Amino acid sequence: MEKNPTKKIYLLCLFTVFFQIYSSHAVAEFHPTLAVKTDYIWRGYSKTSEHFSLQANLDYEHVSGGYFGITLANVDFDDDEFKDPAKLEITPYLGWTFKLSDDWRLDAQWTRYFYDGDIFGHPSDYNEFYLMLHYNDIFSAHVSFSEDYYNQGHASGNYELTGRYPITDNFEFSTGIGYSQVTEIFEYDTLNWDAGLTYYTKFIGFDLRYLDAIETTDAIVTQWPYDPELIDTTFVFSIFIGF
Fold first, then answer.
1. Residues 119-141: tens digit of each pLDDT
2. Of the candidates 2, 50, 131, 208, which lies 20 to 30 Å from 162 by C-alpha distance?
3. Per residue, what are the HEC states of the chain?
4. Which fold has domain 5-242?
């Protein structure tokens, strides 16, 4: 299997530049965002071994409903005893927004997760496909599917409900709950939830979030040694800058 993360990054950057040039001649919006988080929590477990995470995102939205983006984030799966452990997650995505009514819209999205190394000694790049139903940016329901989660030869499913309530023009409460079917990859299925407060100014935001997770099935033995420990009650603080 070919492993050349530098080539992947160059190709993704080239496509991003091409898309920006195209967008300058069309009706589109470009949104860069930079975030610093005290932890990178993903579906009930940490992708940075409970350490700080720096994340950058570039996103394009076209008036037709199409959008494209890429996210970069540092990762640490606590597997330094293995050769070539992954330290960078590269996540391009491509999607389309369908307006169903003045209040409702549906997103269909493809996402690819690339890693600059292995995770517990195994190449772990994979695809994930999303359907997201939104009501006025207040309520969302997400369903996602991977045919080969973490490149382990098994499919996975994930289901999420999220809600936001604006308290003032700059201050909002948000919460969410998710269920992940990952027993054949991580030894058990998981249920996770969160709630937090976010304050926005023109270009900068602050978020304080409570998160927790539990196992929902009996553990089984899997061949992959990666068995992420679910978080206990955890608080994550984030600062993000966006335009």
1. 999 999 999 999 999 999 899 99
2. 50
3. CCCCHHHHHHHHHHHHHHHHHHHHCCCEEEEEEEEEECCCEECCEECCCCCCEEEEEEEEEECCCEEEEEEEEECCCCCCCCCCECCEEEEEEEEEEEECCCCEEEEEEEEEEEECCEECCECCCEEEEEEEEEECCCEEEEEEEECCHHHCCCCEEEEEEEEEEECCCCEEEEEEEEEEECHHHHCCCEEEEEEEEEEECCCEEEEEEEEEEEECCCCCCCCCCCCCCECCCEEEEEEEEEC
4. Porin (2.40.160)
- Asked whether 203 and 241 are in contact (CB, 8 A), the reply is yes
Q: Tell me the whole-structure pTM to 2 decimals.
A: 0.87
Whole-number pLDDT of residue 221? 85
